[in-house]
Structure formats: C-alpha cells, structure tokens
Amino acid sequence: MFFCEMIDTWYLRFSTVAFIFHLCAFPGIAQSQQILVDQQDKEKIVGKISKLFEEKYTIPELGEKCAKDILVALKSNVYDTLTDAKEFTEKLTVDLQKITNDKHIKFRLIEASDIGENQEGSLHHPVRLFRLMQKEHVGFARFDWLEEEIGYLDIRRFYSPTEAKEVVISAMNFIAGANAIIIDLRENQGGAGELLPFFCSYFFEKSTQLSSYYSREDDFTQEFWTYDNFTDKRFIDVPLFLLTSKKTFSAAEMFAYDLKVLHRAILIGDSTGGGAHSVDLFKIDDRFEIYISTSRAINPVTGSNWEGIGVIPDILVPSEVVLDTAIVLAKKAAQEYSKVKDAEVKKVVQKMQIQIDQAENFYETGKDDLAKVALD
To answer: Which of these, 224, 290, 339, lies nearest to 57 by C-alpha position?
Structure first.
C-alpha cells in the first residue's frame, strides 16, 4: 500500500508540474484574461480610427461622414460604459458598419495564434490560414457528379492562385464530361479574388473583362480579365448554374455578379450579403487592429457593383430547395445540351466519312497525293 501511495503521490506531483508546464508552453489553452479600456484609451482609439476613415476609406465622402459620426458618438458618451475591450470592439464595429453599410469593416483585438505567432502586418495568421486551408481542402469542399451528367462543385472559399490553382484544375478535370455544371456558393464568404480570372477562363471562349477594383490610395483601377492563352479544357457553352445565399459574400459575390451580368450563368437561391469592397488591415496600437475598405469593385458592364445590395439571383427560391431546384433545371439543360453536342458530333463524323470516301477513290485511281490532301 505504501508503495502504491508513493506512486500515486509522485504521479499527482508529476501531472501537476506537467500541466503547469503545458500552460506556460501553450498559453492559448489557459483562460484568457479580460482586457480593459479606459476613457483615455477610447479617445485615442476612436481618434485614430476617425483619421483612417477620413484618409483611407474607399468612398471619400462616406469616409468623412464616418470619421465625424464616431467622434460625435464618443463625445456623446456612447462608449462611456464600455470597459471591456472586446465589447468595445464589437460596439464600434456595429456603429461603423451601420454608418457605411459596409460589412467588411471589423475592429478587433489582436490575438496571437496558439504558437505565439505574431499577427502584425498580415490579414491572417499564416499558421491559422494554413490549417483552415487544409481543413477546407483549399476551398473546394466537394466535387461530384449528380444525375450522371451534372458536374457539381461546392466551393467554400477562394484561395490565391498559388494555393488553389492545382485544386481548380483537378476539380475541372473531374467534371470534364459534364453536360451541365452546378457551382454551390451558398457557404462561400469570399477569399482571394485573384483566383477568379483563372477560374472564369474555363467558361469563356476568349479573354473577357470581369469586375475591376479601384484603389483610392493609388487612384488606380486594376482590371481583371479571363486568360487569353488558356490550355485547359474550356466549358464555353456548357449550361452553368450558381447557387447563392445570404452567406455568399465578397469574392464569391464578384464571381456570381460577373457571370450573371455576362449572361454566362443562371443564379438560383437567395440574395447575397452585399460586400463589393476590398479591405486592408491597419494596426491601431499593440492591442487593436481594424479592417477598412480601401478599394471597391466596378463592373465594366453595369458601371456599378453589389455593395450593400447583394447579387439578386435569377431564380429566387427558399434555401431548403435550392439544390433540388438547380438539379431539375440542370438536368433539363443537360439533356438539351447533349442533343446539340450529339448533333455536332454527327456533323463532324459525316464530314470525316466524306473525306475518307474521297481519299479511297483517289487511292484506287493512283492519285496518292490527292488522297493525302483529302484526309488533311
């Protein structure tokens, strides 16, 4: 018994020491301490944010209004009772979004990752982003076949071309024989719009202009075009259906908006979130940072975008029947497309047969040169 008690005591001490060491080595698992802000903190923070909106926000007049309104709110004691930093960030975020109607704006606490990684100067923690990318299969949650001839892609996020290009190629090769395609964007809240020129190249015969982005700071408009020299198989006239929801946001909306405006896809579902801006991350101090929209989308066809409005689908249907509705429509479209494709194949075969018959006649009469020409 004494030996067992010694073992139990030793084990308890060892476990306690090990647990304390684990907490020290991995502080992320320890209970986070409450961060407080006083009136002086809030005055400095609101002052800096006000200046940033005045100087950086993509729509100058709206940036000026936002800058003034939050200073008025501060002087009107709106934030006086907020001493918890997280509650303060949430309240200020709500106010900023309400003034601008811009859901991209977010004021937040700077949080180190669970390995102590520094966040400064980056929109995302690199380690967290890597984990998310692995978890989401680089944005392509699923690619599958529905009803035998319908290719289905469930895309949850757009990653950069460097990260996602090979996955896009694999997905499109997988559905290469599709007579109709459904792309599900209902859970897609955006990501890297830089992937869209490459991805959209699958659906256009020649280089086509998509939405551009205007940067206020640079006073420069960056145009996005599909690729001219594109070696992968294109789905130029394959019927295309996009599924949308209120969650569909940002880059996913750009994809849906552009393909709708260019009459290349039919949108089914609900109106999207309404985020047509692009953000930069600004450090306020050692504890806080803020996403501010510094550029905005401009579509070359409409001269406008979907900010605050969302992308309105061609067919509005309840969320619970979106996929079923799309399958019914895609199946019908696939049947029609298959008939057209079969007719085209038949024409090609008939033309080839004529060439073969001509070549045989030439060979029989000893006109080998003409036979070769007939087969070219």
So the answer is: 290
Q: What is the CATH number of domain 137-279+297-332?
A: 3.90.226.10
The per-residue pLDDT for range 3-50, each reduced to its tens digit, is 333 333 333 343 333 433 343 444 443 345 788 999 999 999 999 999
The pTM of this model reads 0.81
Report CA Rg, the chain.
29
Neighbours of 207 (CB within 10 A): 13
Specify the amino acid at residue 169.
I
Grouping H, G, I as helix, E, B as strand and the rest as coil, residue 153 is: strand
Cβ–Cβ < 8 Å for 297, 250: no
Task: Tell me the two tokens of residue 161.
Answer: 């071309």
Antiparallel, parallel or unpaired: β 150-155 and 220-222: unpaired
CA distance 136 to 156: 7
Beta carbons of 245 and 197 less than 8 angstroms apart: no
